Amino acid sequence: MVKNMLSLAIQGMRRRKRQSMLIFFVLLISFAFAIMLLSYSSSISSTNSQLRLDTYGSWYGAITDGVNSDLEYLESTEWVEDIGTSVNYDIASVIIGDNIMGSLRLGTVDDSMLDMGITLESGRLPKASNEIAIESTELTELGLASASSITLRFTFYSESGEESTVLEKTYRIVGVIKQYTSLWDTDATLNEAILSEEGINELLAEAEESLGSKASVSPEYTYFFTVSSGYESTFESKANSYLWSVREGTNVRYVQVNSVISMEAEEAQLNTFYVWLVLAVTLLAVVMIYILQMQSDVKKIVRLRSIGSTKGQVRLLILMEALMLCVPALLLGTLLGLLGIKALLGLSVYSGSVNIAVSLPWNYLLTSATVWIVGVLLVRMLTIQVALATPLTGRMGMQRKKSNFYSKFRRVLIMLMAILLSMSTLFTIVNVAEPLNNYQEWTSKWSYCFYPAYRHNNIAVYLDDSILSEISSTPGVTDVVAFSSFYSVTTSDDSEAKRVNVIVMDYEDVARFLDVSEVDELSYENGESVIAQNIEDESYIPETGDTITVNIDYANSMAVYDYALNEDSTDLVSISVNIASSQTVPTLFDTLPYTMEFISDTYGIAGNPEAIFGSSYVICSRTLLQNILNEIPEGTIWEIFDGGAMFYHGQSEAKYYQALVYTDTNAENLATDTAMSNILKLTKDQTNYIQDSYYYKLNSRREINYANAQVYQQSINHDCCEWHVHSDCGAADSCEHSEA
Q1: What string of DSSP letters covers 228-294?
Q2: Exposed, middle or buried by CB within 10 Å (0-12, 13-18, 19+), for 690?
Q3: Helix, strand, or coil here: 334?
Q4: Which of the residue ranges 100-109, 310-319, 403-412, 443-452 would you say has the lowest mean pLDDT?
Q5: 349, 43 in Cβ contact below 8 A?
């Protein structure tokens, strides 16, 4: 009988091909939908968990300025699972050609540090004495992203301090370390470059041979360690008691705790309300498709009963039809859901730098599958019961009373579906709004700053338009904001002198940071109008429509300090322009320089421009700068700010000298990109008066931005506490630890 009923079920489905395909499609999509929604948060959590380990390290704590007794204490404590040692020796100068082009904090690490978070982007740790591994961001800043070797200069002193020796050694770069020194929240001195133990010993032996005595070297030991789960707080208290007893009178009396590792212990759990909401929507979609088909199903069952089919045969037939649609939909829906979640994760996480981990919460998925199948079978059984209660004579359809009830029930289901969808939408908006806003903020920040690496006698290097075009066309780069800046004395309509920072930038780039609704683009680009920005200051707040004069005394660099403008000077260039928009902001953090996040005076504008340059800014186009240059004799050394950020030496064409580089979230790391390295190399020969030692380099904030963005992304659709993110270093800690 079973075989016959199976054959009958297959024939029936073939006759109702369109109806069967519709039901199968709804079943397939509904279960795939459940798989994706329930797996997304779990997968995000797993992916971010690995990201945290790669970015902030898996170590629980660290003892800085360590000694042998500290190591013995950790080794003798049963709760300590693993110990990694990092030793910092000193700073070595980087030699390129005949010039010192930067420095590196240098030391050694053991193999355990690889398990605790020092991640290699490529290569390996050094083994031989002539090998070295260097942090990727440091290679970039030194302009050595594609270099195979590096020359370091070491200065050693004798113990008496009376003798010194200088050694230069060339090392083969065998490993590129993922950025970690600016991300790990610890007071330890972390190594930007790592040598082998053999390399350090050989270097010290050579220094002592040259000095003829023992070299004065004070290595700094830091012991990183992990703790057995559940004993973290207990061990922290015990370790602090130990340090208080052995380090009386010193500042290092507390164990350093990795504030970010607490995220692992408090890993966000999927919101229970959200889980049941997903299940309800999924189940309701299945119920509705069968309810909509109930009228025709009742007629089919009544016909079968009228030709002699028993109730048992009818139930078996309907059950077989349901299972023949459910089982394939369940299997294919799972596969489709897995493919969908992987594609969704590829769009929403940084696949260029993070390994995507698809995680399935089997407890929720099995519950979802069980509820889903039970829901389907219950609806089918309901259909059978309605059909069995229908007379076998007449129209063989539901009676009017039941038909009316069925119609009302269908309307209730539609209303319920609308309510659940509205609730899920509202829940998502409310729950996602804040973390999504923070996520977008971090992903919208610039990833790299392209800036001069070296100046001889403060001669600036410039970016040709061809170089900017090369950067813009590099894979992964979404935008490039180029700019220049110089310092000037301005006079307003009442001739009051004011020292300002003049920022040169294209109109479309200014629009990224400021409100330009009052500014005529053509007038701005033609150098006829400028934008004034001031921190509230009663002494000088120009208004929109005023005329302001930019004054450059190119023979007197002290004029920018003293406002000592000699209007009769033959070396004075004065350009009068209209103020298209005067923007008074309450604090320094609302000004354009801070909006662009200049975090170092290396970039031209120092960390506190208000204290150094005053509180006023003039933002203009390159045309206005060109008008100034046209008035200055070619070849003139124009010293705008004594010992400071910007010099024009014989520059006849206005050019930009810095650029902020924005990248796509899935872009590869430009710090080790070969194309970008070639662009950096091109800047060496861009003008006749720039020697080979002048070049550009890339400052990277990519890892900091992406790590913080992932923290906020993880909180979407989760029950978790608020994360506080340190904007200076990128480390994040939970609200439970933020005070510490």
Answers
A1: -TT-HHHHHHHHHHHHHHH-TTSS--S-EE-GGGHHHHTPPEEPHHHHHHHHHHHHHHHHHHHHHTH
A2: buried
A3: helix
A4: 403-412
A5: no
Length of the chain: 740
- Indicate the burial class of 452 (C-beta count within 10 angstroms; 0-12, 13-18, 19 or more): buried
By the 8 A CB rule, do 731 and 259 touch?
A: yes
Structure confidence at residue 730 as a pLDDT band (50, 70, 90): very low
From CA 414, how far away is CA 288, in angstroms rounded? Answer: 8
Q: Are 406 and 294 in contact (CB under 8 A)?
A: yes
Place of tokens 């340190």: 726
401 C-beta neighbours (distance < 10 Å), count: 8
With a threshold of 0.70, does the pTM exceed it?
no
252 with 179: CB under 8 angstroms?
no
Residue 482's beta-bridge partner residues? Answer: 659
Beta-carbon contacts of 15 under 8 Å, excluding residues fewer than 6 positions away, are: none
Tokens read off for 444: 């919208």
Query: Over pLDDT 70: what percentage of the chain?
Result: 67
Which distant-in-sequence residues (6+ apart) come within 8 Å of 698 by Cβ?
140, 141, 145, 448, 449, 450, 661, 670, 671, 676, 680
SS3 per-residue string spanning 664-676:
CCCCCCHHHCHHH
Question: What is the spatial distance between Cα 562 and Cα 59, in angstroms, rounded to a whole number?
Answer: 54
Task: Flag whether pLDDT at 624 surpasses 80.
Answer: yes
Query: Which of these ranges, 10-19, 269-278, 283-292, 393-402, has the smallest mean pLDDT?
Result: 393-402
Q: How far apart are CA 352 and CA 722, in angstroms?
A: 27
The strand pairing partners of 104, in sequence order, are 92
Whether the CA torsion 526, 527, 528, 530 is positive or negative: it is positive
Q: Could you tell me if 651 and 629 are in contact, meaning their C-beta atoms sit under 8 angstroms apart?
A: yes
Lowest mean pLDDT, pick from 108-112, 114-118, 526-530, 585-589: 585-589
> What contacts 530, CB < 8 A, 6 or more positions away?
524, 548, 577, 578, 579, 580, 618, 619, 620, 624
R_g of the chain computed on alpha carbons: 35
How many Å from the N-terminal Cα to the C-terminal Cα in the chain? 74
What is the C-alpha separation between 212 and 165, in angstroms, rounded? Answer: 10
pLDDT band at 717 (very low <50, low <70, confident <90, very high): very low
Question: 10 Å Cβ neighbour count for 540?
Answer: 17
Q: Which residues are CB-contacts of 99 (< 8 A; sequence separation ≥ 6)?
A: 454, 693
Give rounded-to-5 percent helix, strand, coil for the chain: 45, 25, 30
State the pLDDT at residue 223. 95
Cα dist. 637→117, 123, 511, 660 in Å?
49, 46, 33, 27
Q: What is the largest CA-CA distance in the chain?
A: 117
Segment 222-277, tens digit of pLDDT: 999 999 988 888 888 899 889 888 887 676 778 888 877 654 444 444 556 666 76
Taking the C-alpha atoms of residue 635 and residue 308, their distance in angstroms, rounded to an integer, is 108
How many whole angstroms separate alpha carbon 87 and alpha carbon 97? 29
Structure letter (DSSP) for residue 75: H
- Residue 13 · residue 324 · CB < 8 Å: yes
Q: Which of 241, 117, 128 is nearest to 181 (CA)?
A: 117
pLDDT higher than threshold 50 for residue 726:
no
Q: Does 292 or 369 have the greater pLDDT score?
A: 369
Distance between CA atoms of 88 and 106, rounded to whole angstroms? 6
Where b means 16+ CB within 10 Å and e means fewer, 335-365 reads ebbbebbeebbeebbbbebbebbebbbeebb
pLDDT tens profile 642-697: 444 455 556 678 888 788 888 876 676 665 555 666 666 555 444 333 344 445 66
